[in-house]
Design brief:
By secondary structure, the protein is α/β, with parallel strands linked by helices. It contains 12 helices and 13 strands.
Protein backbone atom coordinates (compact mmCIF):
# COMPACT_ATOMS: atom_id res chain seq x y z
CA UNK A 1 0.00 0.00 0.00
CA UNK A 2 1.39 3.38 -0.99
CA UNK A 3 1.99 5.86 1.80
CA UNK A 4 0.50 9.37 1.53
CA UNK A 5 2.80 12.13 0.34
CA UNK A 6 4.08 14.70 2.81
CA UNK A 7 6.10 17.73 1.70
CA UNK A 8 8.61 19.20 4.15
CA UNK A 9 9.47 22.80 3.28
CA UNK A 10 13.16 23.50 3.94
CA UNK A 11 14.41 27.03 3.34
CA UNK A 12 17.71 26.90 5.27
CA UNK A 13 19.77 24.24 3.54
CA UNK A 14 22.73 26.64 3.41
CA UNK A 15 23.20 26.33 7.20
CA UNK A 16 24.73 22.95 8.11
CA UNK A 17 22.91 22.77 11.43
CA UNK A 18 19.49 23.61 10.03
CA UNK A 19 20.09 21.31 7.07
CA UNK A 20 20.74 18.30 9.31
CA UNK A 21 18.39 19.14 12.17
CA UNK A 22 15.25 19.77 10.16
CA UNK A 23 15.56 16.64 8.03
CA UNK A 24 16.51 14.47 11.03
CA UNK A 25 13.42 15.58 12.93
CA UNK A 26 11.09 15.29 9.94
CA UNK A 27 12.26 11.77 9.11
CA UNK A 28 11.82 10.61 12.70
CA UNK A 29 8.38 12.18 12.97
CA UNK A 30 6.87 11.21 9.64
CA UNK A 31 9.18 8.81 7.83
CA UNK A 32 7.34 5.64 8.83
CA UNK A 33 3.89 6.84 7.80
CA UNK A 34 4.50 9.14 4.85
CA UNK A 35 6.33 9.31 1.54
CA UNK A 36 8.50 12.30 2.40
CA UNK A 37 9.60 14.93 -0.09
CA UNK A 38 12.03 17.63 1.00
CA UNK A 39 11.13 20.81 -0.90
CA UNK A 40 14.13 23.12 -0.70
CA UNK A 41 15.56 26.33 -2.06
CA UNK A 42 18.14 25.93 -4.87
CA UNK A 43 21.47 24.43 -3.81
CA UNK A 44 24.26 27.03 -3.91
CA UNK A 45 27.95 27.19 -2.95
CA UNK A 46 27.09 27.66 0.74
CA UNK A 47 25.32 24.29 0.98
CA UNK A 48 27.31 21.35 2.34
CA UNK A 49 26.38 18.96 -0.45
CA UNK A 50 27.79 15.93 1.36
CA UNK A 51 25.47 16.54 4.32
CA UNK A 52 22.58 17.16 1.95
CA UNK A 53 23.14 13.82 0.17
CA UNK A 54 23.51 11.89 3.40
CA UNK A 55 20.45 13.39 5.09
CA UNK A 56 18.18 12.98 2.05
CA UNK A 57 19.37 9.50 1.06
CA UNK A 58 16.35 7.25 0.55
CA UNK A 59 13.78 10.02 0.19
CA UNK A 60 12.92 12.57 -2.49
CA UNK A 61 14.36 16.07 -2.56
CA UNK A 62 13.03 18.64 -5.01
CA UNK A 63 13.94 22.27 -5.63
CA UNK A 64 11.37 25.05 -5.55
CA UNK A 65 11.91 28.65 -6.58
CA UNK A 66 8.75 30.50 -5.58
CA UNK A 67 6.29 30.09 -2.74
CA UNK A 68 3.43 29.83 -5.18
CA UNK A 69 4.83 26.43 -6.20
CA UNK A 70 4.23 25.21 -2.65
CA UNK A 71 0.72 26.63 -2.57
CA UNK A 72 -0.06 24.73 -5.76
CA UNK A 73 0.87 21.33 -4.31
CA UNK A 74 -1.95 18.84 -4.13
CA UNK A 75 -0.58 17.13 -1.03
CA UNK A 76 0.07 17.72 2.66
CA UNK A 77 2.70 20.30 3.62
CA UNK A 78 4.68 20.84 6.82
CA UNK A 79 6.83 23.88 7.54
CA UNK A 80 9.71 24.08 9.99
CA UNK A 81 8.06 25.79 13.01
CA UNK A 82 5.37 23.12 13.02
CA UNK A 83 7.89 20.28 12.61
CA UNK A 84 10.06 21.61 15.43
CA UNK A 85 7.13 21.95 17.82
CA UNK A 86 5.82 18.47 17.03
CA UNK A 87 9.26 16.93 17.51
CA UNK A 88 9.63 18.40 21.00
CA UNK A 89 6.33 16.80 22.01
CA UNK A 90 7.07 13.51 20.20
CA UNK A 91 10.54 13.11 21.71
CA UNK A 92 9.21 13.19 25.26
CA UNK A 93 7.80 9.69 24.75
CA UNK A 94 9.75 8.39 21.76
CA UNK A 95 13.36 7.62 20.85
CA UNK A 96 14.63 8.65 17.40
CA UNK A 97 14.82 5.62 15.10
CA UNK A 98 16.24 7.17 11.93
CA UNK A 99 20.00 7.39 11.44
CA UNK A 100 21.69 8.77 8.30
CA UNK A 101 23.52 6.30 6.06
CA UNK A 102 26.85 6.78 4.30
CA UNK A 103 27.69 5.35 0.90
CA UNK A 104 30.87 3.32 0.41
CA UNK A 105 32.34 6.18 -1.61
CA UNK A 106 31.70 8.65 1.22
CA UNK A 107 33.38 6.34 3.72
CA UNK A 108 36.37 6.01 1.39
CA UNK A 109 36.58 9.80 1.08
CA UNK A 110 36.51 10.14 4.86
CA UNK A 111 39.20 7.51 5.32
CA UNK A 112 41.38 9.37 2.83
CA UNK A 113 40.97 12.53 4.88
CA UNK A 114 41.97 10.60 7.98
CA UNK A 115 45.19 9.58 6.22
CA UNK A 116 45.76 13.12 4.94
CA UNK A 117 45.50 14.39 8.52
CA UNK A 118 47.93 11.74 9.80
CA UNK A 119 45.36 10.11 12.08
CA UNK A 120 45.96 6.37 12.58
CA UNK A 121 43.14 4.09 11.50
CA UNK A 122 42.54 2.80 15.03
CA UNK A 123 42.87 6.18 16.78
CA UNK A 124 40.21 7.48 19.13
CA UNK A 125 38.75 10.72 17.77
CA UNK A 126 37.12 13.79 19.29
CA UNK A 127 35.53 16.48 17.15
CA UNK A 128 35.88 20.01 18.51
CA UNK A 129 33.71 22.92 17.40
CA UNK A 130 33.62 26.28 19.17
CA UNK A 131 31.50 29.03 17.68
CA UNK A 132 33.31 32.34 17.10
CA UNK A 133 32.03 35.78 15.98
CA UNK A 134 33.68 35.62 12.54
CA UNK A 135 31.03 33.25 11.19
CA UNK A 136 27.96 35.16 9.97
CA UNK A 137 28.95 38.35 11.85
CA UNK A 138 25.75 40.01 10.69
CA UNK A 139 23.81 37.78 13.09
CA UNK A 140 24.53 40.02 16.06
CA UNK A 141 21.55 38.64 17.96
CA UNK A 142 23.56 35.40 18.31
CA UNK A 143 26.68 37.02 19.76
CA UNK A 144 25.92 35.58 23.22
CA UNK A 145 26.52 32.13 21.72
CA UNK A 146 30.18 32.78 20.83
CA UNK A 147 33.01 31.43 22.97
CA UNK A 148 36.78 31.49 23.35
CA UNK A 149 38.59 28.42 21.99
CA UNK A 150 41.27 28.80 24.70
CA UNK A 151 38.65 27.85 27.30
CA UNK A 152 38.71 24.34 25.88
CA UNK A 153 42.50 23.92 25.89
CA UNK A 154 42.79 22.06 29.24
CA UNK A 155 40.08 19.59 28.17
CA UNK A 156 41.74 19.07 24.80
CA UNK A 157 45.11 18.48 26.51
CA UNK A 158 43.49 15.89 28.76
CA UNK A 159 42.09 14.12 25.69
CA UNK A 160 45.33 14.12 23.71
CA UNK A 161 47.29 13.01 26.79
CA UNK A 162 44.94 10.03 26.91
CA UNK A 163 45.50 9.01 23.32
CA UNK A 164 42.73 10.88 21.52
CA UNK A 165 43.19 12.78 18.27
CA UNK A 166 41.15 15.97 18.17
CA UNK A 167 39.71 17.23 14.88
CA UNK A 168 38.79 20.91 15.10
CA UNK A 169 36.10 21.92 12.60
CA UNK A 170 34.75 25.32 11.60
CA UNK A 171 35.64 27.97 9.05
CA UNK A 172 38.64 30.08 8.07
CA UNK A 173 37.51 33.09 10.13
CA UNK A 174 38.34 31.20 13.33
CA UNK A 175 41.44 31.70 15.43
CA UNK A 176 44.04 29.12 14.33
CA UNK A 177 45.34 26.70 16.96
CA UNK A 178 48.55 24.68 17.05
CA UNK A 179 48.02 22.10 19.77
CA UNK A 180 49.56 18.62 20.00
CA UNK A 181 47.55 15.87 18.27
CA UNK A 182 44.95 18.45 17.20
CA UNK A 183 44.14 18.74 13.50
CA UNK A 184 42.84 22.24 12.81
CA UNK A 185 40.85 21.72 9.62
CA UNK A 186 39.59 25.30 9.38
CA UNK A 187 42.32 26.14 6.86
CA UNK A 188 43.51 22.70 5.82
CA UNK A 189 44.28 22.18 2.13
CA UNK A 190 42.76 18.69 2.20
CA UNK A 191 39.32 19.94 3.25
CA UNK A 192 36.29 18.33 1.57
CA UNK A 193 32.64 18.69 2.53
CA UNK A 194 32.51 15.08 3.69
CA UNK A 195 34.82 16.07 6.57
CA UNK A 196 32.16 17.23 9.04
CA UNK A 197 29.71 14.33 8.69
CA UNK A 198 32.43 11.66 8.46
CA UNK A 199 34.44 12.71 11.51
CA UNK A 200 31.36 13.47 13.63
CA UNK A 201 30.03 10.01 12.78
CA UNK A 202 33.38 8.38 13.59
CA UNK A 203 34.01 10.38 16.76
CA UNK A 204 34.05 8.94 20.26
CA UNK A 205 33.00 12.37 21.49
CA UNK A 206 31.74 15.68 20.14
CA UNK A 207 33.05 18.58 22.24
CA UNK A 208 31.61 22.02 21.66
CA UNK A 209 28.39 23.92 21.90
CA UNK A 210 24.87 24.00 20.51
CA UNK A 211 25.85 25.42 17.16
CA UNK A 212 25.47 24.11 13.63
CA UNK A 213 27.50 20.88 13.38
CA UNK A 214 26.26 19.51 16.70
CA UNK A 215 23.00 18.68 14.88
CA UNK A 216 25.02 16.00 13.07
CA UNK A 217 26.21 14.61 16.40
CA UNK A 218 22.56 14.27 17.41
CA UNK A 219 21.69 12.55 14.13
CA UNK A 220 24.61 10.10 14.45
CA UNK A 221 24.03 9.51 18.19
CA UNK A 222 27.59 10.61 18.89
CA UNK A 223 28.17 11.36 22.61
CA UNK A 224 28.39 15.07 23.27
CA UNK A 225 29.77 17.43 25.86
CA UNK A 226 28.06 20.73 25.13
CA UNK A 227 29.07 23.84 27.02
CA UNK A 228 27.75 27.41 27.07
CA UNK A 229 24.17 26.19 26.63
CA UNK A 230 21.37 28.66 27.38
CA UNK A 231 18.04 27.54 28.79
CA UNK A 232 15.99 29.07 26.00
CA UNK A 233 17.46 26.73 23.39
CA UNK A 234 17.58 23.56 25.48
CA UNK A 235 14.09 22.31 24.59
CA UNK A 236 14.84 22.40 20.86
CA UNK A 237 18.04 20.33 21.25
CA UNK A 238 17.43 16.61 21.33
CA UNK A 239 19.45 15.06 24.13
CA UNK A 240 20.61 11.44 24.07
CA UNK A 241 21.04 9.89 27.54
CA UNK A 242 24.83 9.86 27.12
CA UNK A 243 25.08 13.62 26.41
CA UNK A 244 26.39 16.09 28.97
CA UNK A 245 25.26 19.71 28.97
CA UNK A 246 26.78 22.63 30.78
CA UNK A 247 24.52 25.65 31.08
CA UNK A 248 25.71 29.21 31.29
CA UNK A 249 25.09 30.82 34.65
CA UNK A 250 22.46 33.53 34.61
CA UNK A 251 23.15 36.65 36.65
CA UNK A 252 20.69 39.44 37.44
CA UNK A 253 20.78 42.19 40.05
CA UNK A 254 24.22 41.10 41.16
CA UNK A 255 23.47 37.46 41.92
CA UNK A 256 23.22 34.09 40.16
CA UNK A 257 19.64 32.99 39.58
CA UNK A 258 18.46 29.56 40.64
CA UNK A 259 17.03 27.08 38.17
CA UNK A 260 13.57 27.61 39.68
CA UNK A 261 13.82 31.36 39.23
CA UNK A 262 14.78 30.92 35.56
CA UNK A 263 11.98 28.40 34.96
CA UNK A 264 9.40 30.77 36.41
CA UNK A 265 10.49 33.80 34.40
CA UNK A 266 10.59 34.98 30.80
CA UNK A 267 14.34 34.35 30.82
CA UNK A 268 13.70 30.68 30.06
CA UNK A 269 12.31 31.67 26.66
CA UNK A 270 15.10 34.08 25.68
CA UNK A 271 17.23 33.13 22.66
CA UNK A 272 18.47 36.51 21.38
CA UNK A 273 21.28 38.65 22.82
CA UNK A 274 19.14 41.78 23.06
CA UNK A 275 16.50 39.95 25.10
CA UNK A 276 19.04 39.24 27.83
CA UNK A 277 20.50 42.75 27.64
CA UNK A 278 17.11 44.48 27.81
CA UNK A 279 16.19 42.40 30.86
CA UNK A 280 19.46 43.27 32.59
CA UNK A 281 20.63 39.67 32.49
CA UNK A 282 24.29 38.69 32.25
CA UNK A 283 25.22 35.28 30.88
CA UNK A 284 28.38 33.80 32.41
CA UNK A 285 30.37 31.36 30.30
CA UNK A 286 31.44 27.96 31.54
CA UNK A 287 34.99 27.82 32.86
CA UNK A 288 37.87 25.69 31.62
CA UNK A 289 37.61 23.60 34.79
CA UNK A 290 33.91 22.93 34.23
CA UNK A 291 34.53 21.81 30.65
CA UNK A 292 37.48 19.65 31.72
CA UNK A 293 35.46 17.95 34.47
CA UNK A 294 32.62 17.21 32.01
CA UNK A 295 35.05 15.69 29.50
CA UNK A 296 36.62 13.52 32.21
CA UNK A 297 33.16 12.32 33.22
CA UNK A 298 32.28 11.47 29.62
CA UNK A 299 35.54 9.58 29.07
CA UNK A 300 35.02 7.54 32.23
CA UNK A 301 31.50 6.63 31.20
CA UNK A 302 32.01 5.61 27.61
CA UNK A 303 34.27 3.21 25.83
CA UNK A 304 35.10 3.55 22.15
CA UNK A 305 32.09 3.21 19.88
CA UNK A 306 32.32 0.23 17.56
Amino acid sequence: MNKPELNIIHTQIDRIGELADQIFKARNLYGKDYDLIIRHWPINEKVNKAVFKIMTRGISAKTFYKNKEIKALNAAVKRWPEVAKEFVAWSKNNIPWYMPIFSEKEIEQGEQLRRDFGIPGNAKIVVLHVREPGYLPELKYHRHRDANIETYKPAVKYLTDNGYYVVRIGDSSMKPIHWRNVVDTTRHDAYQQILEPYFIYQANLYLGMSSGPNALAVAFCTPQVLSHVIYGESDSLYRWPHDIRLFKKTKKDGRILTQQEIDNSDIYTFTRAEEFENAGVELIDNTSDEILDAVKKSCRKFKRRS
